[in-house]
Design the sequence.
């Protein structure tokens, strides 16, 4: 790793945490120094504000002007007078270090510069009690309530399993994060997880009725909704029809129109092929068939995640139910309801999502009045902690939900 850099009249000594100008120390605050290190290490590359903030404040919800303040202090320290000869501002995007950089000292490995963060103990295991209610057609729906604070209801999405998700690295990072700030209500979709598998009605209308009945079962009057993948369409439907009850809504990897309604060449043929694979190989011990779905949903995940996601598919539903759920997701069309959503809404979508194209997330955000839209740098449909997108996701989620209402000014 390069540890000493030279640019202009300056020398940046990373291990000693010093910036020198012609041999004289230039005083910098800690976070301002860290900002300079990241910019110099990645010289020539556009660093988006979200990426910079995620590295500088991985455990804090801070205002964007903290970063702007750091860059302003850097410009002063480097003697810029409006010419941006060191740090170039890319409007509405981020910053790029544009000066020529030379390495004056090297160690064994050269890789991305990351601000060191302290190791933390893993959170204690979450204890949950699974309960059931009967839907109007006698389908048994499993649900759980954990955590404390303002209520956050997660609309069911496929694939989920209330119990398996607590152990699986595919989903287990979500619940500890959310339960720090909310009383989280989760349930398994009909035909899936711990809910009844013997189901006749897999329609979107049935999904909506189940969500409505869960709210009545728990006697919830005011709450926020988290909608992931096809769960986002259920969230949109409910928010449009019950605006008085929904405080905020977060949609991740969302779509308002199912795959049958998207103007994508050969999309229907591709989905039909996937359903044929599901019928033939979903329940078999050999995961080769299911790996096709794993690769589509989590192409850049670690092998551990692929293994668990393969198993999740097998334990959460049957081959026939998997096909029915895919058909139902393809029929979704809530585009006309988007303008009727009145609550504050945050839409986040991975820019390389191969399961649901980012254009679908953009459509959702564009049609919901006042919605915020955040692109996450990932090809995965479900963001995992080992990728750069996760801290960006957490920061935007926390800011939107008001987890740290006293956003810290840390310079």
Sequence:
């Amino acid at each position: 790793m390069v540890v000493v850099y030279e640019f202009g009249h300056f020398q940046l000594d990373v291990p000693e945490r010093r910036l020198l100008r012609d041999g004289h120390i230039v005083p910098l605050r800690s976070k301002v120094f860290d900002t300079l290190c990241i910019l110099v290490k990645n010289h020539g590359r556009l660093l988006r504000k979200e990426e910079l903030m995620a590295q500088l404040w991985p455990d804090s919800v801070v205002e964007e002007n903290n970063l702007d303040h750091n860059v302003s202090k850097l410009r002063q320290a480097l003697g810029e007078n409006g010419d941006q000869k060191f740090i170039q501002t890319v409007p509405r995007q981020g910053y790029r270090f544009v000066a020529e950089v030379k390495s004056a000292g090297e160690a064994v490995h050269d890789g991305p510069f990351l601000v060191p963060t302290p190791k933390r103990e893993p959170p204690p295991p979450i204890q949950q009690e699974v309960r059931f209610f009967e839907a109007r057609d006698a389908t048994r729906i499993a649900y759980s309530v954990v955590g404390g604070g303002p209520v956050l209801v997660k609309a069911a999405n496929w694939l989920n399993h209330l119990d398996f998700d607590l152990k699986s690295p595919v989903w287990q990072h979500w619940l500890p994060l959310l339960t720090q700030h909310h009383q989280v209500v989760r349930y398994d979709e009909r035909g899936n997880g711990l809910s009844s598998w013997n189901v006749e009605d897999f329609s979107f209308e049935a999904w909506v009725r189940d969500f409505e009945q869960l709210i009545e079962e728990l006697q919830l009057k005011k709450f926020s909704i988290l909608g992931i993948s096809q769960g986002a369409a259920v969230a949109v439907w409910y928010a449009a029809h019950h605006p008085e009850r929904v405080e905020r809504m977060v949609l991740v990897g969302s779509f308002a129109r199912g795959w049958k309604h998207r103007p994508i060449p050969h999309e229907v043929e591709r989905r039909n092929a996937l359903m044929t694979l599901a019928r033939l190989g979903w329940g078999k011990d050999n995961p080769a068939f299911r790996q096709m779905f794993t690769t589509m949903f989590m192409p850049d995940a670690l092998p551990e995640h692929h293994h668990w996601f393969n198993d999740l598919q097998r334990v959460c539903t049957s081959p026939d139910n998997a096909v029915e759920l895919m058909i139902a997701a393809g029929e979704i069309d809530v585009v006309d309801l988007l303008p009727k959503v009145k609550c504050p809404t945050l839409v986040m979508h991975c820019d390389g999502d191969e399961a649901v194209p980012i254009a679908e997330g953009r459509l959702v955000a564009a049609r919901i009045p006042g919605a915020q839209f955040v692109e996450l740098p990932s090809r995965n449909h479900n963001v995992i902690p080992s990728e750069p997108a996760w801290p960006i996701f957490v920061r935007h989620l926390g800011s939107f939900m008001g987890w740290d209402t006293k956003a810290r000014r840390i310079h």
Notes: The longest strand covers residues 140-147. Residues 61 and 395 are 6 Å apart (CA to CA).
